[in-house]
């Protein structure tokens, strides 16, 4: 458990987009799918699932859209200046935000994944801690 005091502020890499997380995330997930590896240019990406009412985002955002393997539309919002992904959502469920810029918060103590998904595509060298939920595909 962490001692995070909400709200927590943050910003993208260039500072053009600012965000305020007003409450603890509902879930923190590490995704190991190939798309997230490309997105993060790392072995996985971290997603904080938050209620839309619990996050404020200020700044100019661009958006992309793609259809996920599930058939759901995935709309991504990123900084128009530096290109940092800020969040994504499924337009059919806009009340849930998949906050991708959590590592850019001023206080990141809460960023401890409780679940790892798409472990079937994870890099071989990644070791998932004992006791953490794992799913070979999307949960």
UniProtKB/TrEMBL annotation:
Family membership noted in the UniProt record: Belongs to the Gfa family.
Classification via InterPro entries: CENP-V/GFA (IPR006913), Mss4-like_sf (IPR011057)
Keywords recorded for this protein, A-Z: Lyase, Metal-binding, Zinc
Matching Gene3D superfamilies: glutathione-dependent formaldehyde- activating enzyme (gfa)
Sequence ranges assigned to domain CENP-V/GFA in this UniProt record: 8-126
Lineage, opening ranks: Bacteria, Pseudomonadati, Pseudomonadota, Gammaproteobacteria, Vibrionales
Protein name: Aldehyde-activating protein
UniProt keyword Zinc, yes or no: yes
Hydrolase among keywords: no
């Amino acid at each position: 458990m962490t001692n995070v005091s909400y709200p927590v502020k943050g910003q993208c890499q260039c500072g053009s987009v600012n965000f305020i997380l007003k409450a603890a995330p509902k879930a923190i997930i590490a995704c190991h799918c190939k798309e997230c590896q490309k997105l993060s240019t790392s072995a996985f990406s971290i997603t904080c699932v938050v209620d839309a009412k619990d996050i404020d985002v200020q700044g100019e955002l661009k958006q992309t859209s793609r259809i996920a393997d599930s058939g759901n539309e995935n709309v991504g919002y990123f900084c128009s200046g530096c290109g940092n992904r800020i969040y994504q959502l499924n337009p059919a469920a806009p009340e849930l935000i998949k906050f991708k810029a959590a590592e850019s918060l001023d206080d990141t103590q809460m960023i401890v994944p409780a679940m790892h998904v798409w472990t079937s595509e994870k890099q071989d060298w990644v070791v998932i801690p004992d006791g953490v939920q794992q799913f070979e595909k999307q949960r």
